[in-house]
Model the fold of this input.
Amino acid sequence: LRRRLRSMYYAFDADEEEDRDDLIHIVYASDFHSIAGVEASIRSVQAHASAPHRVQFYFIGDDPLPTLPEVQYINLTEAAIKYNVEEFTNPNYERKGKHKREEGVKINTNAANYVRFVMDKLLPDDAKKVFWIDSDTIVRCDVVQLVENSLVNSEYVIAAVPVPGPPLGIFPDHRPDYADIKWTFNAGVYMVDLEKWRAQDLTETMRAFAQKNREEVIYKFGSQPPLTLTFKEDFEHLPKNWNVKLGKSTEEEVEDACLLHWAGADKPWNNAGEHIEIWNAYDAIDESFEETN
Done:
């Protein structure tokens, strides 16, 4: 697996004639807590991609990825300052218990959660369709085929795995405003048509919604509500096995999963959560283990 991934990267670097319009753009963002997760997820994407040389990764973080320096790096702090990412944050809510990382750190004010709203500013103009993947994931199917077949001649801006709604995290006084939403989505894994996003200036729509929340306290949580409450049911549905949450899924669903998501507080790089053995197949530290199907 390691040799295959390295050769994939080398082949990509050597192909200077690659048509950028043919690329599959995938974005990750993380602070230092989740670096191991990002690297493992990228390796899993490469291992299962039908055309790995076409996959262009972007990592938005504090430093370049230590074991994958080939991945295009975007400085998180510089991006946050330049595009006023702090304005998207939700300072009214702090996660408790296992979800709280350490004393004094509010996960919902972490810039890595909010740079998704300025991808249109950070990525090149030829990144017309982008797949955002959270760090706590492992991909087990072909992203090239998924991206190519999604948001094609579509009226939608967003594509994601549907979840029975309404969205979570709405405070009681505002729930009647969103009670008619029957389907929502988890924003840890979604695709966006950046051309439509740019044309509709949705970055500023998200910013205005986040600012409104500071005044009216519409929702708790962080970066998900501005997306789910703005788009409501207006999103393209991805196959449900492209966002299978560990701890909330059956063994049959896990076996059939194209993307596994450790969405809770337990993360596999902390040796916590279900099916750590699957994640270990792509961990840079574990050179001996390979996933077997």
Observations:
- The first strand starts at residue 24 and ends at 30.
- Strands lie at 24-30, 55-61, 72-75, 129-133, 137-139, 158-164, 183-193, 236-237, 244-245, 259-261.
- The longest helix spans residues 202-216.
